[in-house]
Specification:
One of its GO terms (cellular component) is mitochondrion. It is found in: Mitochondrion. Keywords: Mitochondrion. It is a single chain. The chain is α+β, with helices and mostly antiparallel strands and about 210 residues long. It has one domain: 3-Layer(aba) Sandwich (Restriction Endonuclease). It contains eight helices and nine strands. A six-stranded mixed β-sheet has the order 1-2-3-4-5-6, with helices on both faces. Strands 7-8-9 form a three-stranded antiparallel β-sheet, with no helix packed on it. Helix 5 links the parallel strand 3 and strand 4. The longest helix has 20 residues. The radius of gyration is 19 Å and the shape is globular. The protein starts with a helix and ends with a helix.
C-alpha cells in the first residue's frame, strides 16, 4: 500500500469505537430511572437500546424475584452485563447475566457464548440470559442440554414484568421447590414463580454492594 492509503486506513481504524467504549458517552446513570432521565442522547443507537434493556432487565429481576444485581458496563467485562446475588430462603446464589436487545431471536451460538462465560465463574453461580425477542428452537434445545445452570428470560412492559422465564435442569439443583406457572387476568397471562406451591415472596435481605462488587 502507498503511504496515503495506509494513512487513510489508520484514520478509519482510529475513528471506529467499540460499542462498549461508546457506552462511556452516557455519564451520570446507575439504574433505569437515572438512565431514562438523561438529556440530549440519541435513543436510536444500538448502544442506547442495549443499555436501556440491561437496566430494564435488572429492574425486573429485582422487583419480581428480589435478585439484586448491578450493571457492569465496562469495556473488558468478560461478556458479563450484570452481576449480583439472589438471597433465597435457604441459600445465596451468585448471579451473572447477559442481555441481548437484538432485532431477532437468540440463536444457539448465544447460548454457547454464555456457557463460555459461566464456566469461568465459581460454584453456586446462576447465569441469566435476557433476550428482548426470545429464543430460537435451536437455542432452547441447547440451553436444555447445557451442563451449566442457566435461566432464560424475556422482559416486557418497560421492565415491569417477565414475558417469559424458565431454567434448565442444572439450575434446578439450585432452585429446589421453585416452579413457573401462568397467572391469568382479564387481559392476558404472565409467568408466575412459585416456591413450594405458593407465589414466591421476595427475600431481599441485606445487601452491601460496595462489599460484594470488586
Amino acid at each position: 500500500l502507498d503511504p496515503m492509503s495506509v494513512k487513510r486506513i489508520t484514520t478509519i481504524i482510529n475513528n471506529v469505537k467499540d460499542e462498549k467504549d461508546q457506552d462511556l458517552i452516557y455519564k451520570g446513570h446507575h439504574d433505569l430511572k437515572s438512565f431514562l432521565a438523561l438529556k440530549d442522547v440519541n435513543k436510536n443507537t444500538p448502544v442506547y437500546r442495549g443499555t436501556l434493556y440491561e437496566y430494564q432487565t435488572i429492574a425486573c429481576l429485582k422487583t419480581t424475584l428480589g435478585i439484586v444485581t448491578r450493571r457492569v458496563g465496562k469495556a473488558n467485562d468478560g461478556g458479563i452485563d450484570f452481576r449480583g446475588q439472589w438471597i433465597l430462603p435457604d441459600k445465596r446464589l451468585y448471579i451473572v447475566g447477559q442481555c441481548k436487545a437484538l432485532a431477532k431471536k437468540c440463536s444457539p451460538n448465544i447460548i454457547r457464548e454464555l456457557e463460555g462465560v459461566v464456566c469461568q465463574e465459581t460454584e453456586g453461580t446462576l447465569c441469566i440470559l435476557s433476550s428482548m425477542n426470545g429464543f430460537t428452537e435451536g437455542a432452547i434445545k441447547r440451553y436444555i442440554a447445557s451442563p451449566f445452570p442457566i435461566m432464560l428470560i424475556t422482559v416486557t412492559d418497560h421492565g415491569r414484568k417477565f414475558g417469559s422465564i424458565s431454567w434448565n435442569k442444572k439450575a434446578e439443583e439450585y432452585l429446589k421447590g421453585f416452579q413457573v406457572t401462568l397467572k391469568y387476568d382479564l387481559l392476558n397471562s404472565k409467568p408466575l414463580v412459585l416456591h413450594n406451591g405458593k407465589p414466591f415472596i421476595l427475600h431481599m435481605g441485606q445487601f452491601d454492594s460496595n462489599r460484594f462488587y470488586h
